[in-house]
Design brief:
globular; alpha/beta; 22 strands; single chain; six-stranded antiparallel sheet; 16% strand; five-stranded parallel sheet
Length: 646
């Protein structure tokens, strides 16, 4: 894609390396808008000269690092590429959380740098286009709500459903007061499922909580002009919002809040409250997005309130046909935990966009089902959905499977064969375990992503294809790139819209629903009349750490149901580790790996015990270890083993 060269800010701790970078980018036609050696200098230049792209070394002069700068550049909407000599996993993970547009590891070639810069420009322009489409779509949806035949509570809930796709919440609250007639009002909804919301009744909430909700003192929503977000536990936000909303949020045990003040016109002060149960749900990126959407929401709310000024509250209708269709897209995905509902909103957000999606998650988390849901919600839903297991083919066959071959292209090619990409034309191709793909095949996949065309093995011509690509992996692709096992340019082409699936241990609240789902499915398939699970057995499942995630849960239940002879499953066949914490790549057990000294001490104690504490002689510990008894004695003193056999 041909693009106009942009202004570049270079942030490099070493002066000589900064000059080398300047020479490379200026030779390629870019303009260097400034060179900074510290975070402070970089921020001054960024605010003053507004660069289109920043090249940021992670190690800089001063206390703050390039990772600190990356967070700040993200808030300024300036794309940046990290440059680093450090491949430490902790540093990589910290860098990844800032959402850079690229990362190069020194030493790198000039060509690699320029490719990374071109990809960063491409991704950022598509990001901006996406934001414009997003704001236009929301404006159209708000106009449709204002024109629809609904009462005020229904309209406000419909607004919340639109916002849910972009800003997460488990509680949606509205509050307004003032205006020419001095009227005021409030309403709230608790999210209880994918498309299910319960209207908050103040009387019922008071009875359930046993408290007089709204009796405290708090400031009204007119005190703020810009969206604010934060954790409820700090107390800062609850002191700035109305006492009624603060009491509702605390009663519902919400931990995170995003407040969007909206001037509804005619002196009416209007506020939207988005609260969530998990702390730190609402991050700076959500507040920034709320700020961008604020103007459109203001206009929409003005129209909605203008139409419904005299409307009386009414009941919420059942799901619309569109909502039911959306629910059908998630068929086979069971649960309603906050993490899963957030995931559904991400899927609904990206599905219509035709963007490349990278699904990340541990084995057994259901990556293929997520890919199928994206396909069902997209404009390609009537086209084919083709799955390719990139780990299931040897390097010699994967290119033939993906790209196809002509008759006689190699020994055994008796006829022309269409590859998976051509089979997926006008539909979606799902590249499962893409991290397992050989490097030589990655080059060809990159071309498909760039050019949307393939070349069959043995053919001299290219074939254009119209496909959407969804890739998935359980590997940490950042580390794979750092280790040279995965192409960096391919990573950034795939990582346009990453979706990370939560492991089952982080959504334990869904285990009950999943268990009953698998029991019903197994009974339907086998005719076995098991109808439920005993609370004790269910508690066992909820305490287990599930390193194999949903797939492991399904297999455990199937084994248990085969042996069950009653109508209620009273015992589950868990692995020997049972309910103890299982070591996984992300668990805390990783930090409990013993040192060499600890292992040596344990080994010596075990040898001494086997020798009944005897140090020397033919059957002594020194003889077994093959070292002099004096050396063994010195080791015992050094390791703090006070007496033989201790």
């Amino acid at each position: 894609m041909q693009m106009t060269k942009k202004n570049v800010l270079i942030v490099e701790g070493e002066h000589i390396e900064a000059i080398d970078l300047q020479l490379i980018v200026e030779k390629a036609g870019y303009t260097v808008t400034g060179i900074a050696h510290s975070v402070h200098q970089a921020l001054e230049l960024a605010e003053k000269r507004q660069p289109h792209l920043a090249l940021v070394d992670i190690k800089l002069q001063g206390v703050k690092t390039g990772i600190d700068l990356g967070r700040m550049l993200g808030l300024l909407n300036i794309p940046f590429i990290f440059l680093s000599t450090n491949c430490n996993p902790d540093t990589l993970e910290a860098a990844k959380r800032t959402q850079p547009y690229g990362c190069l590891f020194k030493p790198y070639r000039a060509k690699e740098l320029l490719i990374a810069m071109a990809l960063a420009e491409y991704r950022h322009e598509h990001h901006i286009e996406g934001l414009i489409r997003q704001q236009s779509l929301i404006s159209d949806q708000l106009s449709a709500i204002a024109a629809a035949d609904m009462d005020l509570p229904e309209r406000l809930l419909a607004v919340g459903k639109i916002i849910q796709a972009y800003l997460p919440f488990d509680y949606l609250g509205y509050e307004w007061y003032g205006g020419n007639e001095g009227e005021s009002g409030r309403c709230g909804y608790q999210r209880v499922g994918l498309n299910e919301y319960a209207r908050i009744a103040m009387k019922g909430l008071r009875e359930c909580s046993g408290t007089d909700i709204g009796s405290g003192v708090g400031q009204g929503p007119a005190t703020m002009r810009e969206p604010v977000s934060g954790n409820i536990s700090t107390g800062e936000l609850t002191r700035r919002i109305s006492s009624v909303q603060a009491d509702i949020i605390n009663t519902l045990m919400m931990e995170s809040l995003l407040l969007i003040p909206l001037d509804a016109g005619n002196g009416t002060h209007f506020s939207m409250y988005l609260a969530s149960r998990p702390a730190d749900t609402h991050k700076e990126k959500h507040r920034e997005l709320a700020s961008r959407l604020q103007a459109g929401l203001k206009e929409g709310i003005r129209r909605i309130l203008g139409v419904n000024r005299c409307s009386s509250p009414g009941s919420i209708h059942a799901r619309s046909g569109a909502a039911a269709e959306t629910a059908g897209a998630f068929e086979g995905i069971v649960g309603n935990s906050p993490l899963l509902l957030r995931l559904f909103e991400e899927i609904r957000q990206v599905a219509p966009m035709d963007s490349t999606v990278l699904i990340l998650g541990e084995s057994g988390t259901g990556k293929e089902k997520i890919a199928q849901s994206i396909h069902r919600l997209s404009d390609r839903k009537t086209g084919p959905f083709v799955r390719v297991n990139c780990a299931g083919f040897p390097p010699s066959l994967i290119e033939s499977e993906l790209f196809g071959h002509e008759k006689g292209a190699f020994t055994g090619a008796m006829e022309r064969r269409l590859g998976k990409f051509e089979q997926a034309n006008n539909g979606t191709i799902f590249l499962d375990e893409v991290g397992e793909m050989p490097l030589e095949s990655q080059v060809k996949l990159l071309r498909v992503l760039q050019e949307r065309e393939i070349e069959r093995i043995g053919s001299q011509t290219t074939t254009s294809i119209d496909i959407r690509i969804i890739a998935a992996t359980n590997r940490n692709l950042w580390q794979e790139v750092a280790a040279g096992r995965f192409r960096q340019d391919l990573y950034y082409r795939l990582n346009v819209f990453p979706i990370e699936l939560p492991p089952l241990r982080d959504r334990a609240g869904d285990i009950c629903k999943l268990t009953r789902h698998f029991i019903a499915r197994f009974g339907q398939r086998t005719g076995k009349k098991v109808r439920d699970i005993h609370p004790t057995a269910l508690l066992q499942l909820e305490k287990y750490s599930w390193p194999g995630n949903i797939r492991e849960l399904e297999h455990v239940l199937e084994r248990s149901l085969v042996l069950c002879k009653e109508e209620v499953l009273e015992m589950v066949m868990l692995p020997p580790e049972g309910c103890s914490e299982i070591s996984t790549p992300r668990s805390e057990e990783r930090s409990k790996i013993k040192s060499l000294k600890e292992m040596e001490k344990e080994y010596l104690i075990a040898v001494l015990k086997s020798c009944n504490g005897r140090l020397s002689g033919k059957k002594g510990a020194a003889s077994i270890l093959g070292i002099p008894s004096s050396t063994l004695y010195s080791k015992l003193i050094k390791l703090g083993i006070k007496s033989p056999g201790e």
